[in-house]
């Protein structure tokens, strides 16, 4: 699953009793690891026969037959099924009255048999509307109904009765009755389609063994593209009303390249025979690795004009990420949800490697450094940091720690391990692991053991340091020079604090640079394996005394770099003289790290931006710079009105618009114009945007697509530009698509009007609202932009007072979005104190909500510190 974005799924029921166990399964929607282990000890050889009847209406019907071996029939057994109406239940041929609590069915011991058992359950259930289970969406453009399944981490039982835990793999034989114009995609390719009663019956052969969360079934009147030019047949699905926005040739190209790469790298052919990919609406995450029927979020991968290079690279990267899961996650699966991080880390690592080595995006590791890795550094410096491997006591906690540490720090540690062991040894270890555990479940020790055997090395110490200890270390160069030569050189490693004391072993490159007439030139570079607090680097003695030292050159390590004073000054003054785009990116990041640590004044950073950003020629690096500009603007907005904010805001607007006009490459022009859109707040800039919207101002080369039109309308409404409400109404008439409806909600909620805020807040907190969750989430994200501090303050106390009640009533999916957008932080000491008081007053919040509250407080403290560090305000 690709998530950065990164949200939790409602984790639901699964469990079982154990021979000799006295405690029954807890009467709640969650499955404990203990109960799951007990059930797995009794149940094996699971086969599902699934029959679904889909009409397009709000509910569906199903009949599930489970066949399984049971080693101990002396205790009851549970089968997971969420919020269904059971119409019949037979156990080993006997009709029984269901013992059912809306979370799981309990089968009585007297109805079970040691050996093979068969259970048949007929039921009806409402379709889900929150992105889990069997989700249903009605297209507002043409009224067509689309469904798709999503089960991670434990939501298969929102669609059919199942042992919903990863270590009870099963086979799936599926039959689906649908309206006549629908198509169905599942793990297998259909073996037959019959015309029945004005509709169709789709018949699928039995699948290979899969964990329940890797199985899928999607159905609706999708547009289908096919490509058989590669080794495996490929299909792409999308809603009819958005089909024109899809570029199937790009999807098929990257898919074909990836399948070729992974077949060769893993040394095991792709196992699932065909490769379907579906663009689906209302999706919770970026994508999901269902075996042979992968789903992708429309909002991330549909574009109303030709894709930019960055958008194509993102598409390629996510295709590769989900494809890596087909081997690592689907073929070999973790035993319990504590292993989910390894699935995601490995897919992030392999997805980046495949993108770099099999597509045109050879700079994929640079993009990874600028995006995912930076998010991991931020996450790892928070008060909520955690080890990569953490306990997961129940499905309620499955997504508590799924974040940038899970994805990108984990991927970085795997890259570091590859450097330590050697690329071919690492690959051989992975191959051996996949061969040994295919169609089975495995643990972290199994994976690390395979790598250790290939390397003939004990990796237990590495595993403890990197995977079981939290926090990110810092390295710094400590060196002396005499007569222009280095006389001593030591790498100093430090831990974050006494609570996170671990020092780690790591292999990095240490590079020395000198300033010359042609810029910053590499003088010497050595690979160093360091550990402990101090590591001498004798190879650098006698080298020319550097103007800049970078002790993680080419980004081998996962570590914060603290530049020495001379190197920091060189970085600040000489960014434009650095030819290597990755090094340039890392030096930009060092400056930004200084801002976030309140060591470099934000105004000094923005001075550097104004001088250097317009001349940046590397497209990927420019994206990192513009993200930092946007973050800077958010800090300034949160700090409140000031003469400096107005002055530098004008300069940044003018810089971005001038760069938009000057760009000769459409990728650069679109990136700069997007930056301008995100900066525009002065009357002059807003007027320019309005003129671009109505066509009276034409920027040569710039295409004003429907997406751009909505961005402009939203920006004008954000600042209550005269006539902006009418522009919003007109755009709603112009674009009645689902994405248009989403954009209209954002533009309406963002207006700086107390009445508007109150109305949307009431809708958001009404857990019975008929508004789909995807649209509620959009409203949350737009309700309190950074400059609307006064409006934010009006309901701040109310939101915190109601937080416990909302947290208790809503599920983790809702609260993940709520915690990211709705907690009041307004960059003042009083705001920080208010959040601290809420942490104390609300000890019973869910684990996820506690984390959100703590992170919000820490980031609010950071904003206050950045404000205090500014030399001009």
Task: Write up what this structure looks like.
The protein has 873 residues and is of the alpha+beta class. Among the domains are: 1-213, tricorn interacting facor f3 domain (Immunoglobulin-like); 334-467, Neutral Protease Domain 2 (Neutral Protease, domain 2); 474-557 and 559-567; 784-873. Helix content is 42%, strand content 20%. The strands form eight sheets. The protein has an eight-stranded mixed sheet with strand order 5-4-7-2-1-10-13-12. A hairpin with a 2-residue loop joins strand 24 and strand 25. The longest helix is centred in the last third of the chain and has 23 residues, at 847-869. The radius of gyration is 28 Å and the shape is globular. Residues 3-22 have low confidence and may be disordered. Residues 48-213 form the Aminopeptidase N-like N-terminal domain. Residues 548-853 form the ERAP1-like C-terminal domain. Residues 255-466 form the Peptidase M1 membrane alanine aminopeptidase domain.
Task: Summarize the model shown.
InterPro entries: Aminopeptidase_N-like_N, Aminopeptidase_N-like_N_sf, ERAP1-like_C_dom, Pept_M1_aminopeptidase, Peptidase_M1, Peptidase_M1_aminopeptidases, Peptidase_M1_dom, Peptidase_M4/M1_CTD_sf. This protein has 873 residues and is of the alpha+beta class.
